[in-house]
Amino acid sequence: MTQIPGVWLKPLQVYSDARGWLRELFREDELPEGFLPCMGYISVTHPGIARGPHEHVHQTDGFAFVFGDYELHLWENRPGHPECHEVHRVGAANPTFVVVPPGVVHAYRNVGTEDAAVLNFPNQLYAGRNKAEPVDEIRHEHDENSRFKL
Questions:
Q1: How far apart are CA 140 and CA 146, in angstroms?
Q2: What fold is seen in the domain 8-139?
């Protein structure tokens, strides 16, 4: 559960049989209204390493945490919303699809002992069409005065 408006967390079910398993990451008919992914990628994070915190001005991220062991941090940073910081444990033991809207600062750290992978399905192209536009990202990890700390 989350208290941050617009953030959406959904546990992911696994379907197993004698051949192996299948896990749906997302379905268009189950996504929050208005969220339509337009690209997808996978990133690997080494043990003890964090990505973020950062936020987007326009982009919504759709993360599938299904491998490894992560601590996901979310901070409400939109005008008119009360400050809120949440931490969720996600990954292989708690496979979760998370939608993070613009203005919500997010970061995740691999708290496991092995490399872990995250799939991301944002609703905007990274750096725009043909990678010819500015990247929609506000990075907080190198700001010593930031309130967004892991």
A1: 6
A2: Jelly Rolls (2.60.120)
